[in-house]
Amino acid sequence: MHYKRRFRTKHEDIAFDPDDMFRACNPSQQEYSKVHNNITIVVKLSSDATTEQAEQSGAPDQSLPSTTLEMFTRCPRFRILVIGKSGVGKSSLISQAFGVEKEIIADDKPGEANIDEELISTRNERFVLHDSKGFEAGDRDNLKIVRDFIDHRGTMSPEHQLHAVWLCFEIPRAGGRLLETGTEDFLKSKSSGELGNVPVIVVLTKYDLLVDRIERTLGRSSLSDKDRKELVKKNAEAELRDTCTGPLEQLVGPDIPYAMISTEEDYEGTLTHLVQITEQCVGQHSASEASATAPIAQHSASEAAVMGSIAQRVDPGLKIKASIEVGKKKYWKALKSCPTFKKRRMWECLHVLHTDIVNVWNFHDPYHHLHSQDFRDMMLKIVDEMEVGPTGYSTNIKTPISMVSAISVVAAIAGIVSALAGPAAPIVVPIAVGAVLSTWVYEVYQISHPVLRRFMAYIIHLTLVLQTLFIVSESQELTRRAIKLAVASYLDSQTSKEVPAWIQDYDQQLNILERADCEILDKIIDVMQRYKIDAAQISKLRADLPPVDLSSDEPW
Fold first, then answer.
1. Element containing residue 393 per DSSP (H, E)
2. What is the pLDDT of residues 24-66, one digit of tens each?
3. Residue 393 backbone class (left: φ over 0; alpha: ψ -120 to 50; beta: rest)
C-alpha cells in the first residue's frame, strides 16, 4: 500500500507493511498509526480483517523474539569518534565506510565540530558518529575536550558507550612531520592507559597521492606493468615507514593499529582493511571487558564488534560473520532441538530467522522491502522449488568456490540486464509471486529430515541472495527492482544449484537426525564461508556489471 503526496511534479511514496500493521493491532485497538515527516497517518481496520489476515499469513499470537531486535535495545548503534583536521578526508571516509551522506561531517569548515553532537543519518540507522577537529600545535583545550569525552563515555550505559576512535592524518610528503605536539600527547595518553581500553586506530589518509608521487619519480622504464606496480608498492611502504609508521612506533610502541586508506577508485580494498582492523580491535576490547565485568555488561561488550560489522558497508564477509554470531546466540545453534520452536508453525520459525539475517545486512531500505511478506514468500518458494529430487550438481569442487561464485553471479546479472527489452523493462523473477505456498509452511515444527534441510536452505539461500544484493545496490536506497535483480541473478547462477547439493550430500553421508546441533551449525557456516565473496573482489565485480537503472521501482 502506498500513500502519494503530490506537490507540483514531485511525489513521495510512503510504504506500509501489512504484516506490521496487523501485528500492531489487537481486539481492543483496531487501528495502525505511522508518523512520516510530522504527519500521522492512521489506518483503521475491522476485527474481521485482522482475523482473516492473521489466518492467511500464519501470523503468530506472539511473535518469536528476534535476536537482533533484542540486541538493538541494548546496543542500538555502533558509535565511533573520528578525529582529524579539516581537509584530511573524514567526510569521504565516513561516507564510503558506512554508506552515509558526505554532509554528515563539515570537513571543510574548520572549528565547527562539536564532539558531543550525535551525528546520525537516516541512510544508516545502526551507526552514530562523533566528530572532533584535529590537535593543532599548542592547542591544549581540544586535547582536554577529547580526553574528557572518552572518559565520560566510558562511565555511561552500554548504548551510549564509545566503541572505537579513528585518528586521521594525511600522509605527509617525504621529510614532512606527521605528529603535532597535541597528537603526541593524545597517543601517549592512550599507550599509558589514561584513555581506558577503547580502541584507537590511526588512519593515514590519501594513500593514492603517495602512490601518484612515487609513480612520477620512477619516470619511464622498461618494467612490465606488474613489476612496476610491485616497485611502486615497495617504495610506498618504505616511505610510509620513514614518515608515518616508524615515528608512530617510536612514540607509542609497535602495537598501535593503523591503516593506509584512500577513498578514490581502485583503492576500495584499503577501506576494507580499515573496517576489518576496527572489527578485530573492538572484538579484542570486548573480550577484555567481558572478562572483568558483570554478565549484563559482558553481553553488551560482546555485541559491540557485531554492531560494527552491521554498521559498515564495505565488506560482505563481515556481514556473514555477524550473521553467524547472531545465529549462535539462540536459533542457529539449536535448529534440531530448539525449545522455542516447539508448537510453532514453520512460517513463524523462518520468519524470525529471516528478520535477524536481514537486520544484520542493514541495507538502506526505508520502505522495508526486505521485511515485506512478498519478499519472505519469494524466499520460501526458493527453498520449496529447490529441494525436490536430485540436484545433479557435484560438491567435489576443486576451484576456490568464492571465485567461481562471484563470476557466476556477475555473469547471471549481466545476462539478465542484457536481455531486458529496454532500460525501464521490468525484471522477471522465475518464481510466481502471489502463488499459494506449500502446506509445509503452515505445519507445526518437528524434528525431521525435511525440516532441518529447509532451515539450512533458507538460511544459506537468503544470505547469498543478500550478498548478491550487496554487489548491485552499492549502499543506495533499495527498490523492489534491485531486489528482484539480485534474486533473479542468484537463481540463474551456479551457486543456487550447488547449495542444495551440499545440503543433500551432508544429509546422505550420515543421517542428519543423528547429528548434534553443533554439527548442523558447523555445516551451515562451512557452506556460507565457501560462497562468501571476498571484499577485495567487490569493486572489480561492480566494474564488470553492465549499467542498469535500479533507482526506479516496480511491482513485485
1. none
2. 454 334 565 665 655 667 676 554 443 334 333 444 457 899 9
3. beta
